[in-house]
Specification:
Layout lengths: L1 H17 L2 H26 L6 H11 L1 E2 L2 H19 L16 H42 L3 H13 L7 E2 L3 H7 L3 H14 L4 H5 L2 H5 L7 H33 L25 H29 L3 H21 L12 H4 L2 H4 L4 E4 L2 E4 H34 L6
Antiparallel strand pairs: 1-2, 3-4
Helix pairs in contact: 1-11, 2-7, 2-8, 2-11, 4-5, 5-6, 7-11, 8-11, 8-12, 8-13, 11-12, 12-13, 12-16
Amino acid sequence: MRARMFFRLVRYECRKAFLNPGMLIFFAALLLFNGWKIGDSYNKKVERWLEYSAQYEQTYAQYVGTITPEKIRALKTVYDPLKIKHDNHTISYEYDPNAYIYSEAMDEEFYRTLFYTELEYDYLYQNVAYRIRENALELAEFYDDLDNSFEAAKNRQIAADFTSRSIPAFADTRGYEVLLSYDYSAMLILLLSVFALCGVFVTERETDMYMLLRTTKNGAGSTVAAKLTASLLFVVITCAVFFGQDFLTIYFASPRNTALQSPIYALRAFESTHMTMSVGQYFLWAAAMKSLGVFACCTAVLLISSLFKQTLGAFFTGVALLLGLTALQEFSGGKLALRWFDPIELVMFRELVYRDTFVNALGIPVRLHIFVTAGVVIVTAAMIGVILYLNRSYHYRARRRGSNVSV
C-alpha cells in the first residue's frame, strides 16, 4: 500500500513539473534543434567530397575491411606519384579527363585526406603502441631504482594498456568522429534541466503550500523522496532521448557503420587513451558518464530550489551556477583541486579519457576519470543529503505552524 501511494506521488510530481504544455513544447523545440545541429555537423564533415560520392564509394570498396600489405601497396601505387608532384610543386590544378575526380591536385587531396592518412595511421598504430609500451616499461624500471612506487606502478599500468594493440581493419570513421566530439546535446539537456527543475521545491514555498503539505499523511519524507525520484526519472529519460537521437542521426546519415566495431583508438583523437573498447561500446559508456554528470548538475539545481523562495531567482541562480562550472572546466587546466568535484568534467567525458592520465591517491595510481567520477558521486550524495534535510526541516516547521489545520 505504501509503495503504491509512493508511486502515485511520483506520477503526480512528474505531471506537475515535467508534463505541462510549456515544458513539453520546450522539450520538443530543443529536440528538433539538436537533430538539426548534429545533422549539420555531419554534413559539414562530409560535404567536401559529397559531389564525388560515386568515386568515393568505388575507392572505399577497395580498401575497407582487413588491412593487408596488398591494399597498402595498391594505394601507394596511386598516391605516391601524386605526392611527389605535390611536394615538387609540379602538380596540375587544371581539369584532367584522366584524373580520378577532377584534377591531379584534387586527386592528391582526395586520396590523402580520405584514405592514405587514415590507412597509414591504422597500419602503423601497432608500432606506436609498441613504442609507448616499451617506453613505459623503461620508465617503470627507472622509477623502481628511485623507489618512486607511484610512477613505477603508473608506467606498468600504461605498458599493460598498450600491450598487443593494433587496428586490424579500415573503416570510414567520419560520422563517429562527429558523434563522439558532439557536446550540444549535453548542453541542451542542462538548459532543459534548469528550466524543469528550478521550481521543484521552491514552488511550494512560493505559494505557501509547504505549510499544508506537512499536515497531510504523506507530506514530509514521502513527498521529498517522490520529487527526487521524479527528477531522476526526468534526467534518465531526457538523456536517453537526446543521446539516442545523436546516435540514430549519425547512424542513418552515414551509409557506412562498420566503424562501430572498430577499437576506440581507431579514431585519431583517442590515440593515447587507455580504453580498448569498440566505438559503439565507448559511446554507451560515455553516454552513461554524461548522464551521471547531468544528474549531478541537476542535484545542484534542486539544492538551489530548496534554498530559494522565488522560482525566478532559483532559475537565474541555476543558470549562473552551470555557466560557472562550465567555465571552471574550461579553464581549470591540470589543477586537480578545481576538477575533482566539477560534474561538467563528466558531461565533457572525452576530455578525461583522451590520454592515459593518473592521479596520485595516497601513492596509488588512479585514473583521472575514475577519481573525478568518485568525487562527483560523493558531492552529489552530500547535496542530496542537504536537500532532504532542508525540505524535511521546512515541512516540520510547517507542521508546527499548521497544527490547527485539518485535512
